[in-house]
Hints:
Layout: H1 9-26, E1 43-45, H2 48-52, E2 70-73, E3 86-89, E4 92-94, E5 102-105, E6 108-109, E7 130-137, E8 152-158, E9 165-174, E10 178-190, E11 194-206, E12 216-230, E13 233-247, H3 254-259, H4 275-278, E14 286-303, E15 306-323, E16 328-332, E17 344-349, E18 351-352, E19 389-390, E20 393-414, E21 417-438, E22 454-476, E23 479-496, E24 501-502, E25 506-507, E26 513-521, E27 526-537, E28 557-569, E29 573-585, E30 588-591, E31 609-612, E32 616-630, E33 633-646, E34 685-695, E35 698-707, E36 710-716, E37 721-725, E38 728-743, E39 746-756, E40 764-767, E41 774-776, E42 781-789
Parallel strand pairs: 5-8
Antiparallel strand pairs: 1-7, 2-3, 3-4, 5-6, 7-8, 9-10, 9-42, 10-11, 11-12, 12-13, 13-14, 14-15, 15-20, 16-17, 18-19, 20-21, 21-22, 22-23, 23-24, 23-25, 23-26, 26-27, 27-28, 28-29, 29-32, 30-31, 32-33, 33-34, 34-35, 35-38, 36-37, 38-39, 39-42, 40-41
Amino acid sequence: MYALKNKSLLSMAIAMAVSTSVYANDKTIEEITVVAKPTSYANNVIEPAMLEQQSSVASILSVIDNLPGISINEGDAFGGDDWSTTITMRGFSIDGNQQQLGMTVDGIPNGGSNYGGGAKANRYLDSENLATVEVGQGTSDIKSASLEALGGTFNFVSKDPSLEKGTTFAYTSGSHDASRYYIKHETGTVFDNTQAYVSYSQTDTSRWIGSGSNGGKDNQHAELKFVSNFNDLTLTGRLSYDDVSETNYNSVSIEQFEQTPNWDQLTWNWTGGGPHFDQMFAEGWGTLRENTLGYLKFEYAISPTSLLTISPYYHKNSGRGDWIPPYLTTPVDENGEPTTQGGTNAGSYGFADSEGNPLAPNSGCTASLSWPWESGPDLNPACYDDTATPVMSYRHTHYKKDRLGVTANYQATFGDHDIEAGFWYEQSEREESRDWHKVIDARIFHHFENTPYWTQYKNTFDTDTFKWYIQDSINLGDLTLNIGAKQYLVELQKYDHFANESSDKVDSDSDVLFSGGALYQLNNDTELFASYSENFAAIKDGVLERDSSTLTEIEPETAKNIDFGVRYQADKLTLSATAYSVKFDNRITFIAPGSDSGGIDYTIGTNGSYINVGGIDSKGLELSASYMLTPSWSVYSSYTNSSSEYSSDDPNAYDSQGVLLQDKEGNTAAPSFKKGDSLIDTSEDLLVVSTDYFSDGFRVGLSAKYTGERLGAWQDEGTRARSKVDGYTVLDFNAGYSTDVDAGPFKAIDLSFVVYNITDKSYLAGGTGNGTTYFIGAPRTAAVTFTADF
């Protein structure tokens, strides 16, 4: 790529990214010390050792867990379940209900990080092909292409092809039946101007909870990338394909965890006689996804001081989510007549006679099963004759998404001004439908009929996105000032296939969003920075799913971020400190419809609504330090202290006057949070300490992370008693040896060993956002990888 003048901040950032990639391949610790980009806002890139701390079988999301302010939690140590994955940073979250952080791959938008039709970076990139991760805490890079970047962005950068021809083969074996095969071929330089590689991996794991028929992960992944240089033009192309089937982990309450700390309430033995029990059979809780993402990047050096980059891309996503409700439904249309498409559920039943006719429980029977929640007599086998046959459904929620878009960026230096301007345009079509299949014989297993007996809904959502931005960085000697503006123009529309009608188009446009900052070079080692930015998250198309949402009254979410910080870099020591303040407004929350059951309402469909409910105010301090004790031995540490408070009451629990809501029977809702309460499921303290040693091909590392106490929902309105999740410390170990060899076809070999949670700490990890249930942290988990280069 044609570099800009050396005074350009962007050029220095690119040089750092390239250097990081070289380091990661060569494992020569004294070559470079990785620091944050010289920008006026808080940002980090991963330390090279962070790549070594993770096994290749693990998700690439885990490599950023030790950076300040960030907490990554996945259902197991290998990232084997998207459903249980949670990411938090500065009080903002990515989980099953919230998508408040932006994510890109090589600057290409990921299409959203939500479970229903989204795809996080681990769906696009294998760990061996990851060069680095660029993290913008709070204030995102102005050109970042995301509709979710309220609280910052993650950009996962793929490695460029090697100049040398070669083939790499790796095999991983680990705990919980983990196995992984990986092969990659580098073409070296071909046609005098092109380098390319192609890779493939197959990953299999089992759920760590339970045994036998307990599900797991089956993942096939392939990537292709090439870079071609034509004088002033560099052409980069990349294609990734991912096909995965995952069995989910379930969240549990604090009480359930205390009783059975190694069980998430899902079972691995089919009883055949009780649908109420068998709805918890692990293999019936599944995620199936297929993602293909391709892009071309044209980088044209217009002059020695200007560069134009254009990147068209295409993404195709498909898959489904599986659940096994403990009953069959009775769908009817608006006239009360039986139907197979649309309509509503007129009633459910868990037992039938020999002819398949619904049965009601025996008269006078009031017995109820208490686990996994109260069944009532309708689902209790004791309330039926022995001739009654259990019946169940297998529910599929189908997801499809097609995205076609382009990003364009122009950079130029004019005297003391570094100008950056560009746009992002995308057309997205997402289809979601839900159908119910009859389990053929619930006494035997959950095998289901291929033809659904009810398709509950089928909707298509069209989203058009256009973003423009411009920024000027003014170089005034030791002082650099920047000012920027951006705006999002977003239009959504829903098409209901059964009603054969389209909704009105919903505009989710932002105001013109301003950002500004200052960077002062105090001396050769120290720089001071300050920044202000206005961030934005468009209304998600999921809001249109809920028929009761009053769209004209919903405003897009916004956040205002302020950073003050200092960076210090000497020969051996690198320090960074940032104080931040965030004001998050117009937070969109889902209001579920009332239910008289403590269990899962599998028929919720498109009921419920979304509303704006105020926001969150956050402030905190982020520190990081890296010190080279010797040319081969380094120590890294990061600490975060944060405070986040709600600026409104929980609308699921309180009315506009702050009084607890009541249902039709006069029962009050469970209290949750009120204005001024600390944010649910967010730790105020995060501390990381790690040390890594490299010498003559040998490497060893030890990393510890402390996550402080987290608060849940209020349990009692009178006493204001609040549930608490204990803090915990997880200790990880890694070791490895690599060497060049000259034995037959071998060029080099590498052996790596990683142990997660070596003390086998039992703890609750990420939450579900409601302050009542959490996912269980993974136990001690080990993996060993052998890699050979040919």
